[in-house]
Amino acid sequence: MKRQLRALLTLVWAERSFYTIGSVLVVVSVFTGLSYPYFVQQLIDQGVMSGQIERVNRIGVILFGLLLAEGLSTVARDYFFNLAAERVTARLRQKVFDHLLRQDIAFFDRQRSGELTTRLWSDVPAIGRVVGEEAADSSRFALFALGGTALLFYTSLTLTLYVMLAVPPIVIASWWLGKRVKVLATQMQTAYAQSGGTAEESMSGIRTVRAFSQEAAEGARYGRTIDRALDLARRKILVTGALSGLTFGFGEGAALLALWAGGRLIVRGQLTSGQLIGFVLYAFLVARGFRNATGFWTDALRGLGATSWVFELLDRTPALPRSGSRRLDRVDGAVTFDGVAFRYPTRPDVDAVADFNLRVAPNEVVALVGRSGAGKSTIVNLLLRFYEPSAGHLLLDGHDVNTLDAMWLRQQIGVVMQEPVLFSGSIADNIRYGRPDATEEEVAAAAALAHAKEFIDRFPAGLATAIGDRGVQLSGGQRQRLAIARAVLRRPRILILDEATSALDSENESFVQDALRALPYRPTTFVIAHRLSSVATVDRVILLDRGHIIAAGPHDELLRTSDRYRQLVETQLVPA
Ligand code: ADP
Fold this sequence. Notes:
Blueprint: H1 2-13, H2 16-48, H3 53-101, H4 105-110, H5 113-130, H6 133-155, H7 157-164, H8 167-204, H9 206-211, H10 215-267, H11 273-306, H12 308-315, E1 335-342, E2 353-360, E3 365-369, H13 376-383, E4 391-396, E5 399-400, H14 406-411, E6 413-416, E7 425-426, H15 427-431, H16 440-449, H17 453-458, E8 466-467, H18 476-488, E9 494-498, H19 511-517, E10 524-528, H20 532-537, E11 540-545, E12 548-553, H21 555-561, H22 563-571
Parallel strand pairs: 3-10, 3-11, 6-9, 9-10
Antiparallel strand pairs: 1-2, 1-4, 4-5, 7-8, 11-12
Helix pairs in contact: 2-3, 2-6, 2-11, 3-5, 3-6, 5-8, 5-11, 6-7, 6-11, 7-10, 8-10, 8-11, 10-11, 16-18, 21-22
């Protein structure tokens, strides 16, 4: 909580000019608010009671002036506070997002991305309320409560003591129920985030949902998460309601008590009617002041409770890269796995790869083959430093990759994923993704080399054609060609190709060859191969099983020497 407040204050401090102006305006409105009852009292005692019409007029004008001043200062105050709060939340969102982008891949294995994005837009506004108009309003009310209390004592000591009776129950109720509200709010927010994650899962898998006719089941699954959140919301609303009911009842009740006691004092000649009216106005002001200030306090606690995850996240330092900052002047592309073992942090009981020894020479093209789950993708993940080996060393040109700058290392690697992700934007933007400074000619050349030019030229807008949600849809093969262009535009020393498993995509037949042809030099290449045509052309095939290498060598040789390989070729690889 303390760290959270400190982090929040840092963000608020950045907007201090807005807050300073806003605070001055708060003071103005407190001053005007507190002077009302005083002038009303004057109006009655010195004007009405003594029959002086001139005084009534004068004080009336003063009261209007005060009203105008209060109105204007409130409008301006809200402007400054709300703008500041909006800027604080916008900056916080950006900060959280930037921080998320830097988290290690293992972090994303544990989190549902839909949940994170839901939380980012649903929780952060709660912070906005804590540092915005409501903060200004409640500090005004808090000042009303304090200043009003002083003026109550000044107006009538006896009556003030009556009013004070309301304070202890209100304080106790706020403290106790406030804590409850905070807990419930956190739980509710988490429940809504989970339902957001569920919804995202169904939406992104809509084709599967439709194909299996699971619309009703998915709806029901979402419904269950919503029901849970709703139940928590109901309990939170109940507690919040009880809290405001209690403060309202005790506060206004005390003011009424004072009215009754004051009436008796007037009858006894110990108080003027103007004083009583002034007192009651102050008492209501104080009651409202306390109520609003405590109401804000519970809101603020709720907001902070719901958003503690944001600050926890900002405190989280990614486990990777702990890497060094070394960059090599020259990369030949020799890759060595030296006794590498790895277990996924989310599955610590299973070796994804174990005792893995492999030397790949510069310019060599190796194919990783094996049944699904054999560890092919894990090898690639380690090479990209998405994860760190649990044991052993991974070397690039003889240098342990742990000592190298991870960002720089990834710049040396070009990757074509099995299901390439393209971002909304033009075709050119997507090809340029890893090298934003590439010229139009370089982009066009990369597209041509990746055999993407044929289909790009068929679009009227060519490279400028928008793709994704708001543009044309591309076939799997076309997407993969763009991904090849994107990877080779970076001129990588190491190339990783994850071949599509789908046998239907005949466009993809010569995927590996296409990718290799797209570069005028030979990078060290790792192919996760699913096709006979791919393994037949590479320098060396590595057969994996349960994280171990069980055979390695050229395709023809393995066919002769390894039964397991022959079996795999017959049953797993796509002919052609
Ligand atoms: P392949 O690419 O050959 O199909 P993988 O390298 O993906 O195999 O998987 C190797 C092992 O690691 C499998 O047992 C798989 O279940 C596990 N695994 C893969 N990815 C993850 C992950 N993100 N979290 C936990 N376990 C994983």
